[in-house]
Prior knowledge:
By secondary structure, this protein is mainly alpha-helical. It starts with a helix and ends with a helix. α4 runs parallel beside α6 (121-139). Helix content is 82%, strand content 0%.
Amino acid sequence: MEIIFGMIIILVAGFIQGLTTFGLSLVAIPFLILIIPLQQIVPIIVVLALLTNSLVLYNARKNISFKKFIPLLLAAILFLPVGAHSLRYMNTDYLKLVFGILVTGFSLLLIMKKTFPIKHEKAGYMATGSLSGFLNGSLSISGPPVVLFLSIQGVSKDAFRANITLYFMILNTVTVAIFLAHGLLNRAVFEQILYLAPALVVGVLAGIRVSRNLKDETFKKVVLILLVATGVWTTISTLVTLAG
């Protein structure tokens, strides 16, 4: 029964990931934690995310813009250790709270069509990469700043899907290598992955197929709604932690 429940969770999460190119962990982790030990969930999700990235990137590969992507990635790699080092000096719960409030607020503004595109785009990519890398190192949250920036810039659906997927794929590849080095990808994790991977593939392919029929404006709204959910979830869960 637990296996079936897990497959349903991953099927839905995979659909969201295939549709929007992010959201796998947001949808899956709160439910998987009910049936799978927490220390196994993160390695499982990272490996499944890498598989998802491969499927989505193959579908969107023609729209990759390396010229814009490289400053984003280099800045993220540079600031990732800065974020990790900051763990010694700051309370991450307060950082998560500020992050959740800001993501929720900016996403709601964009939903209400309050646009504020950044004119110096290269500088914007570098700043976004820096923030994303810092947050990945400190909170293991790298996606929302990039998603929000691309939404602010009005990037087309196809370009959005291609570039953000490549970004996540590289970060997840590095993370998988780290997990392997630390022995976190053990037999129990791989057994769970084998059970869940078929449901993930079906969900992702279904999400990709639906995404092809979405207009840019509709796609952007779906992405922003998911961002609001991310911000609200992060804010509420952090407030509960601080209150406890």
